[in-house]
Amino acid sequence: MKRDIALDVLRGIMLVVMAADHFGEPVFQHLYEIAGYVSAAEGFVFLSGMLVAIVYGRYCAAGSYVLEKRIWSRAGTIYLYHLIVLLAVFVFTVATAMSDAYWKSFATEMQVEPVRALLSGLLMLYQPPMLDVLPLYVVLMLFAPFALRLMFQYQGVGLAMVLAVSAGLWLAAQYAWGDVLLGLLPDGSLIRLGAFHVLAWQLLFVLGMVLGFMRFSGIAPRVHAGWWLISVGVVIYLYLLRHGQVRNEWLSLHHHIAREYMAWLRLLNFLAFVYMVAGFIALHRRYQVFALLALPGRWLAFLGQHSLQVFAYHLVVLYCYIPFRWGEWAFTDGQKWFVLAVFLASLTLPALAHQHYLQRKKAKSTPNSTPDFNPALT
User: Is residue 146 within 8 Å of 65, Cβ to Cβ?
Assistant: First the structure.
């Protein structure tokens, strides 16, 4: 299947938005959840599921468990990057504690119990702030082959089964039924599972896989003008609600908008946002309305093609940035804008390094070998 550059651009946008959000002041308050109750994380999980189906769908007909081997190998790569980032955070946090610095690491539990936190982090049970995305992807990738086989081998029936199970798990998360699984975890573990409840967030990944399955199968869902206008209206209203421009105390209740459990209003907001973006993509393909964005689009697509490396890099850099964010060494707001620009531009470095690595690897391989298209978090 021909590579869809629009998906790379969207992944690149999500990376830049997440990096800017994590950078914090002075941009966080202007950028976070700019589409209502939707953050870049939701889009990234959805796109990853979509690309998993598009990339690995071709292996569903292969024997010898090729599909499972390919996807689980990818899960291993993601876990490797999780380990690299975790070790980097461990070194920074221990050095902070030993130097008696005025700042504190985001990984506060690791400062108090470094060895226990590190061992629990290796098991993905301890997930410091910002280090909860990669473990989520590892788990999702481990179960992805089963969903793909159902969809590709049983078509409509399989698709219905996958959606039913996924919706059931999401519903269980809303009532915290999945929390009983915590009792099965090893005694003595340091448990901090981050901001993404896997039973809830898997629904976004599965919905992405469903759309990817449709794309792979040549099914192109049409964007209808009426539904598109309704979606735009939903996004605008929830944006105004999220930022206090309109009031609705019932909709604003936490259990309607909870991020950890992907509550129903947040889910609705995200689906409306996806439909709105799909309309803009269709509009661009027909009329080239965003032609002036070709140059930044190429940069964003480049980042999206190497998203795992870019994502891991930005986590390490932002932990090391902590001493300069607050306190006596902190930059001024004016300086932070400049540092932010340099930081975002530096996201190109891990992408370039990974591209160079792939080129060298390809040069050493046999002429007939064909490297995989970059999957979920490449």
Answer: no
Is 378 a member of any domain? no
Q: What percent of the chain has pLDDT over 70?
A: 95
* Tens-digit pLDDT profile for residues 32-41: 888 899 999 9
Separation of alpha carbons 343 and 314, rounded Å: 8
Whether residue 308 is contained in a domain is answered as yes
Number of domains in the chain: 1
Give the span between the Cα atoms of 84 and 86, in whole angstroms.
5
**What six digits make up the tokens of 346?**
């530096």
Mean residue pLDDT of the chain comes to 91
pTM (two decimals): 0.92
376 belongs to a structural domain: no
Structural domain contains residue 284: yes
Q: How many whole angstroms from its chain centre is CA 103?
A: 28
Domain that holds residue 144: 5-364
Q: Nearest 5 degrees, angle CA 26-CA 332-CA 21?
A: 25
Distance between CA atoms of 78 and 371, rounded to whole angstroms? 17
Tokens of 370: 């064909």
What 8-state DSSP symbol labels residue 327?
Answer: S
The label of the residue with tokens 């604003």 reads 252
